C-alpha cells in the first residue's frame, strides 16, 4: 500500500507544496514544530534514509539544501535545524525546522496549531524565496 507521502506526491492527498524535482518533493509539515517546518522526501518509497541508494541520498541532500536556504530566507530564524526521525511515516523524510534555540526542534513538544490559510501563506513565502 502506498505511504501517505506517496499519496501526497501523487496529488491524492492535499499538501502545501514547496517544490519538487525529478526525484524529490518538499511540503509543509501539517503539525509543525515551528512556522516553516518543512518535510523533504524522495519520490522513491523507501522507509529508512540509510537504505536509500547513494544517488538518491545525494539528490535528496542537495534538494534539502536548496529548500532549507529558501525556508531560512522566508522565516525569521537563527538557522534551519535538520532532523530525521521516521517513526511515524515509513517513507524517508528530512525535517527542516527554523530554530532559534535547541528546544525549537524538540519533537516531544506540543505542535503548533496553524490554520490552512497560515500554512498556505508560509508555503507561498518560501516558494517566493526559491
Ligand atoms: P516522523 O515519522 O519523522 O516521526 O514524523 C512524521 C511527520 O509527518 C510528522 O511531523 C507529521 O506531522 C507529518 N505528517 C504526517 N502525516 C502528514 C500529512 O498527511 N501531511 C503532512 N503535510 N504532514 C504529515
Describe the structure.
This protein is α+β, with helices and mostly antiparallel strands. It has a single domain (4-128), classed as HIT family, subunit A. The chain contains 3 helices and 5 strands. A 5-stranded antiparallel β-sheet has the order 1-2-3-5-4. Strand 1 (17-20) and strand 2 (24-28) form a beta hairpin. The longest helix has 21 residues, at 54-74. The protein is globular and about 35 Å long. The chain starts with a helix and ends with a helix. The model has no long low-confidence stretch (mean pLDDT 98). The protein binds guanosine-5'-monophosphate (5GP). Guanosine-5'-monophosphate (5GP) binds next to strand 2.
Top CATH class? Alpha Beta
Give the strand order of the largest sheet, numbering strands 1, 2, ... along the chain. 1-2-3-5-4
Q: What structural class do you assign from the helix and strand content?
A: alpha+beta
Principal-axis shape equals globular
Defining traits:
single chain; 130 residues; alpha+beta; HIT family, subunit A; 3 helices; 31% helix; globular
Amino acid at each position: 500500500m502506498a505511504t501517505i507521502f506517496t499519496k501526497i506526491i501523487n496529488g491524492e492527498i492535499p499538501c502545501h507544496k514547496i517544490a519538487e524535482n525529478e526525484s524529490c518533493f518538499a511540503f509543509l509539515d501539517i503539525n509543525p514544530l515551528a512556522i516553516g517546518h518543512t518535510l523533504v522526501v524522495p519520490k522513491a518509497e523507501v522507509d529508512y534514509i540509510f537504505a536509500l541508494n547513494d544517488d538518491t541520498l545525494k539528490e535528496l541532500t542537495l534538494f534539502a539544501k536548496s529548500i532549507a536556504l529558501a525556508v531560512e530566507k522566508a522565516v525569521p530564524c537563527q538557522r534551519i535545524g535538520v532532523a530525521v526521525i521516521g517513526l511515524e511515516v515509513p517513507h524517508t523524510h528530512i525535517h527542516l525546522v527554523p530554530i532559534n534555540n535547541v528546544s525549537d526542534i524538540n519533537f516531544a513538544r506540543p505542535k503548533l496549531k496553524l490554520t490552512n490559510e497560515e500554512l498556505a501563506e508560509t508555503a507561498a513565502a518560501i516558494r517566493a524565496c526559491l
